[in-house]
Amino acid sequence: MTNTHQISPAQLYSIFFVSRILVTLTYIPALNEIALSSDLLVQSFLYPLGMLVSALPLYALYQARPDWDIFDCAYRISPVLSRILAVLYALFFLFVELLSVTRFDLFATSRLFPDSDFTIFLLIIILISCAAAGFGLEAIGRLSGLVVLLVCITLGFVVAVLLPRFEPLNFTPLFYDGVMPTFRGAATFLAGTAETAALAVIAPRVRGKLEKGYVKWTLWLTLAMALLFFCAISVLGVFFQTQFFPFHSLAVLAEFSVLQRLDAFHTGVWILCLFVKLAFFTLLTVTCLRRAFGRRFKKAWIAGCILVLGAAAVFISGDYERFAAIARPQFMMIVFVVFVILIPLCLLPPVRRQAKLEKEAAAL
Description:
By secondary structure, this protein is an all-alpha fold.
């Protein structure tokens, strides 16, 4: 991959933070492993361990050839394999977009506009967000920095306002139902992190080392998730698991001086998060498709993403059963393992062998 249009690690991990925190903000308890309130906090703190372990194959590839993306690695084995992987990763990234937009649609149709048709607004969000991918990685990175700031401000308001309502008795004993629900829940959190797979494609376009940034991103994300769960459980107690979107319920309860309710501000920030995520993953999808079929027709690929994503989102729109069918934790975990762990792990031996041969040839 040619290292053009580079961004800094801080910008990349700002995009990652915004993209992943959206999954937590639109958390649906019914889709995840049923765990008692205190166990959710343990799941949050198990999350960084899973993140660090799962990234080891990608880290090893990056160490062997930091200037190659995963398709360059596959190309050394077979050009056909490289194209196949490019198509598979494009489909994976498009699937992540579909999950994100339909999850938000479910939130909007159930909590914001239960009596209105959200289809037109949904299509507008898809159109604008995907089209923004055409502005490039740098523009998305700059916007994500602003969105990170807005996320921190709004979450800080909620924590400060709800602090007097914290109730320690809302926390349950740890591991009351055993440890397995907690581990399965942590795996579900991990499976929702498609951003790790994005490193396989985007790493060569980042100027600077990625390792420290990855650890910092994981730790900051863990802290934000733990804080969100701690606040929600402290205030909502057992009602946390009964809410469709508990973090929106938490925002509804928050009042701040003349602002009255903060849920409207939170919803606006969530839309910005969705905008960044769709733009970024559309860019990844188009990057993969151009690697598979040639670097022309960038705008045509973006238009294709808009059409496919729009049609699929309208089909699923407002239907919880259809959404649940594509968002099953077991399926998500399988997809995560394949694209984040197995594929890089299979490519690692030949890449290391190639790097070793090049090093020996350079020493002669």
